[in-house]
């Protein structure tokens, strides 16, 4: 087993200090590939969270009062530290989350890119001067930090989901209390260790960890605090809705990056090989555990059989195993609950008439490994068409024409990402316009970058992360009416 990074500390990071829970209780963190313990982290409760909020509040005046350039220097140093320790961070991520090391390396760079990007975006948080309604007045509009903000993140991208929130929040002058997922607290704590190393001021970034039962307690402590002015959440739609209801109490701002149900449409005029490569990445990356995974693959009737045959051959080449082993391209699922959900969805699809071309069962490697699976004959009568699979199962259906493909793709309350492959320029514009999603990938299955706005419509969320838009959600506008200036003589 790879060594854990020397700079990793397994306590919570609050006010620049490494602290245990008031209750002294701890939670085991395990390698999902082996079930072996990697160590333990504190099980924080309400009073621990309140202490972290107080630390963030104490740091806010100084941090928000600094120039954007000063904050940029700190964030750029943090990005450099992540890049300098990229291999350590990637190995740690593979150990606690299970994704292949090659994917973990890509995620670490993606995560660091948010610090680099928002360090600069913070310097461009421009205001406005608005033509005034009075001769003796000037109207100024400024963008200001909110104060203390909370971040709650999932396990499937243990580093990038942290920095995609922390970077814009801190660049805009806020101070953050972050709660990472129960399954993957170590990547977040490693990022906190690097913050400590590069001199992020105490209290500006705080991490509180806890288990599944602690999450609602920590979340409630954040939301109930009058000091916390925003919750940025990435996770399931069910929890996102609950948090939004809770935030209504004192009108805490929310941004929500929630679940998806992406359609991946392959038209008969597509570049066949490019579509095949795109769907492979989009479906099987992170063992299918991504919110933008191809959840429903829709292939035009005329090319359906040849596409299924080619994808089946590709799926059979996927090497399943521990993410640290050379050549492995698919790791385990995160836990038994995830595995059982995949099994239930496949069983339901088979019962309702789907056909298995390869896979369809647990993998011989044991544990939470599942075989790369190709299912065809998938229809809207099946649960797999409506729920996130979060597993390596390609659920394929077919369609006759463009109108039917669009109708099928939009037949979901979710609206995060949608993909299609076509070489017809008219169709490209028509379908991109028609898909009711926040993100559209045309002739690509890879759409994540720090420079573009990531987020969904409908029940996939509210707000955008990344890009020049991603910082706005972490600010409040202030209008200053400067009167009494006198009229021009
Ligand atoms: P989850 O169960 O909703 O958990 C997400 C985070 O919320 C975890 O830190 C969790 O803590 C915490 N949490 C759970 N219940 C809470 C509560 N009542 N109050 C406060 N916090 C609470 O989701 P998940 O299973 O970890 O992640 C998978 C989901 O995230 C999928 O639906 C996926 O599509 C979505 N996702 C969306 C995006 C996006 O950008 N739209 C990106 C990645 C993932 P514990 O882990 O301790 O339970």
Explain what the structure shows.
It is a single chain. This protein has 489 residues and is an alpha/beta fold. The protein is built from 13 helices and 20 strands. The strands form 5 sheets. It has a 7-stranded mixed sheet with strand order 14-15-16-13-12-17-18, with helices on both faces. It has a 6-stranded mixed sheet with strand order 9-8-7-10-11-19, sandwiched between helices. Strands 5-6-20 form a 3-stranded antiparallel sheet, with no helix packed on it. Strand 1 and strand 2 (17-19) form a beta hairpin. The relative contact order is 0.14. The structure holds NADP nicotinamide-adenine-dinucleotide phosphate (NAP). Residues 152-157, 161, 179, 181-182, 211-212, 215-216, 219, 234-236, 239, 242-243, 257-260, 291, 388, 416, 454, 456, 461 line the site of NADP nicotinamide-adenine-dinucleotide phosphate.
Quick overview of this protein structure:
The protein contains 13 helices and 20 strands. By secondary structure, the chain is of the alpha/beta class.
């Amino acid at each position: 087993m790879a060594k854990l990074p020397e700079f990793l500390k397994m306590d919570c990071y609050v006010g620049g200090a490494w602290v245990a829970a008031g209750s002294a209780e701890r939670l085991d963190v395990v390698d999902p590939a082996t079930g072996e313990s990697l160590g333990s982290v504190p099980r924080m409760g309400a009073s621990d969270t309140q202490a972290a909020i107080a630390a963030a509040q104490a740091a806010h005046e100084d941090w928000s009062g600094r120039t954007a350039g000063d904050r940029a220097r700190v964030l750029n140093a943090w990005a450099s530290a992540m890049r300098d320790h990229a291999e350590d961070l990637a190995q740690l991520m593979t150990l606690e989350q299970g994704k292949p090391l090659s994917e973990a390396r890509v995620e670490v760079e993606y995560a660091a890119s948010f610090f680099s990007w928002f360090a600069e975006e913070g310097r461009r948080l421009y205001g406005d001067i608005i033509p005034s309604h009075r001769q003796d007045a000037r109207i100024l509009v400024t963008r200001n930090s909110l104060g203390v903000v909370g971040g709650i993140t999932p396990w499937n991208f243990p580093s990038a989901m942290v920095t995609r929130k922390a970077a814009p929040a801190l660049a805009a002058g806020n101070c953050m209390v972050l709660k990472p997922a129960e399954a993957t607290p170590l990547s977040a704590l490693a990022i906190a260790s690097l913050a400590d190393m590069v001199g992020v001021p105490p209290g500006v970034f705080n991490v509180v960890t806890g288990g599944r039962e602690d999450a609602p307690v920590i979340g409630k402590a954040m939301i109930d605090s009058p000091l916390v002015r925003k919750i940025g959440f990435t996770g399931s739609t069910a929890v996102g809705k609950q948090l939004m209801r809770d935030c209504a109490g004192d009108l805490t701002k929310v941004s929500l990056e929630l679940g998806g149900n992406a359609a991946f449409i392959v038209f008969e005029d597509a570049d066949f090989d490019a579509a095949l490569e795109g769907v492979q990445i989009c479906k099987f990356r992170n063992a299918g555990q991504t919110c933008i995974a191809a959840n429903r693959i829709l292939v035009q009737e005329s090319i359906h059989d040849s596409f299924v045959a080619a994808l089946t051959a590709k799926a059979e080449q996927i090497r399943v195993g521990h993410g640290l082993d050379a050549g492995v391209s698919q790791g385990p699922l995160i836990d038994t609950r995830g595995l059982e959900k995949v099994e239930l969805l496949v069983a339901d699809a088979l019962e309702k008439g789907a056909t298995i071309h390869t896979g369809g069962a647990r993998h011989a490697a044991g544990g939470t490994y599942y075989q790369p699976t190709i299912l065809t004959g998938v229809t809207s009568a099946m649960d797999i068409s409506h729920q996130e699979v979060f597993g390596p199962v390609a659920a394929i259906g077919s369609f006759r024409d463009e109108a039917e493909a669009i109708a099928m793709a939009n037949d979901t309350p979710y609206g995060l990402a949608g993909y299609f492959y076509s070489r017809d320029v008219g169709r490209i514009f028509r379908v991109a316009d028609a898909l009711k999603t926040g993100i559209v990938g045309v002739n690509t299955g890879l759409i994540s970058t720090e420079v573009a706005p990531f987020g969904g419509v409908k029940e996939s969320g509210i707000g955008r992360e990344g890009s020049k838009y991603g910082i706005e959600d972490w600010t409040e506008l202030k209008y200053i009416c400067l009167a009494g200036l006198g009229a021009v003589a």
